[in-house]
Every structure is written in structure tokens, then in C-alpha cells.
Design goal:
The structure is a single chain. By secondary structure, the protein is an alpha/beta fold. It has a six-stranded mixed beta sheet with strand order 6-7-8-3-9-10, with helices on both faces. Strands 2-1-4-5 form a four-stranded antiparallel beta sheet, with helices on one face. The two termini are 31 Å apart. Belongs to the ABC transporter superfamily.
């Protein structure tokens, strides 16, 4: 599999505070790759740096071989990278349908009915809520909407930031099952940031561990699940 996304020596700062320290990471086409780590490790910062905000201070970010390190965010999104951000950030006063149409704008307004049907096949609940305002949805439904809105742009790479955050276990299983089905059916490449290390590593082909802004470990999902230090740090205390 060829590399769809590649980060080499990437650093990022918030003012004088260094958030990312020489990140080397590869996501191959068709893979699900997960990034796990504790709160404050820099996971969301890495996702935002890929999208151009904050800008990488040093290093290089390649998408399909193209250097996008210094590109503005809107240009990066138009290359086929879509993000379902932490906290969902849907448009609360807009309907489900209107939120999904907002996601479609990046890729143009052709084939919108087909794109809507693909989202509804993945998340039937959204079709039932078409005319309902986003802010009145349950947490799980809002997460489905955030993912669906990202998919409306027909991305080649989907960035998912904490999709299980604050959701009930049953809904978490539904979300992760949808991600797996989407990857298997369409070959969509996914980079997943997730605190639920057990679910994420079970889902992912490969994973990286981020500690204090640096990658400390990498391997297949199964390999990382089997590592005693991973189990001690992320899977004990009820997380599994």
C-alpha cells in the first residue's frame, strides 16, 4: 500500500509551548490508523496541524506526495481531507439536512442525492432526523452527523478526533462498527485519535502511541494491544 499521508519531523507550538516533538507518522491508502495517548499528549494538536492550524513549525506533511505543510486550511480540505473534530462542532441551529449540505460544499454540489444516501445507509438514524435541528440531537446522533458531514465531501482521508467521547458504550460500538464497515466497503483511509485505546486498537490496522508530544511506540493494533506497557497505561482500570 502506498502512503496517502506522511509526516516527517513535524513540530508544532502554541506560543512558546511546544506541543509536537518531531512526529514521524505514515498512513497508507486503505488503512485505519489510530493514535492513542493520555489527555494533553498532543493528539488533537497533531490532527489540527495536519489541517494547517496550528501550522507545523518544522518538518514536512505530505498528502499523496504533495507537500501541504504550509498550505492554508481551506486548500488542504479541498485536496480530499475531511475532519470530524473533537466535540463534533455541528451547526446546532441548522437541520440535519442542512448540516450535511454544508459538508458537501467542499466537493461541489454534484451527486448530492447519492452522497446523502451513502451517509443514510451508514447512519439510518440521520435520515429519520432530517428536519430536526442539530442541537436537539442526542450526543450519539450528533457524532453520527459530524462524521456524515465529513463524508459528504467525498474525502480520500478521514480524520476522526475522539468519536467516542462522552457516548454510552452501546453507541460507541455502533460508531466503531460504522467506521469498520465504511473502511471495508469503500477502502476509505482513516486516521483516528481516540482515548478508548481498547476499541481503537481492535479497529485499527496500525497504531501509534503519543506521549508528551512525541511518538514513543508503533505497531499493528494487535501488537500494541499485546504490549504489557500499553495494557498497564491505557487498558487497566476499566478502560477495556
Amino acid at each position: 500500500m502506498t502512503a496517502l499521508l506522511s509526516l516527517s519531523g513535524v513540530t508544532a507550538f502554541y506560543g512558546a509551548i511546544q506541543a509536537l516533538r518531531g512526529i514521524d507518522l505514515t498512513v497508507r491508502r486503505g488503512e485505519i490508523v489510530t493514535l492513542i495517548g493520555a489527555n494533553g499528549a498532543g493528539k488533537s494538536t497533531l490532527m489540527m496541524t495536519i489541517c494547517g492550524n496550528p501550522r507545523a513549525r518544522t518538518g514536512q506533511i505530505l498528502h499523496e506526495g504533495q507537500d501541504i505543510t504550509q498550505w492554508p486550511t481551506h486548500r488542504i480540505m479541498r485536496r480530499g481531507i475531511a475532519q470530524a473534530p473533537e466535540g463534533r462542532r455541528i451547526f446546532g441551529r441548522m437541520t440535519v439536512h442542512e448540516n450535511l449540505l454544508m459538508g458537501a460544499e467542499v466537493a461541489g454540489r454534484t451527486d448530492i442525492p447519492d452522497r446523502l444516501e451513502q451517509v443514510f445507509a451508514l447512519f439510518p438514524r440521520l435520515k429519520e432526523r432530517m428536519t430536526q435541528r442539530g442541537g436537539t440531537l442526542s450526543g450519539g446522533e450528533q457524532q453520527m452527523l459530524a462524521i456524515g458531514r465529513a463524508l459528504m465531501s467525498r474525502p480520500s482521508l478521514l480524520l476522526l478526533d475522539e468519536p467516542s467521547l462522552g457516548l454510552a458504550p452501546l453507541v460507541v460500538r455502533q460508531i466503531f462498527s460504522a467506521i469498520r464497515d465504511l473502511n471495508r466497503a469503500t477502502g476509505l483511509t482513516v486516521l483516528l485519535v481516540e482515548q478508548n485505546a481498547y476499541q481503537a486498537l481492535r479497529l485499527a490496522h496500525r497504531g501509534y502511541v503519543l506521549v508528551n508530544g512525541a511518538i514513543t511506540m508503533a505497531g499493528t493494533g494487535a501488537e500494541l494491544l499485546a504490549r504489557p506497557e500499553i495494557r498497564a497505561a491505557y487498558l487497566e482500570g476499566g478502560h477495556a
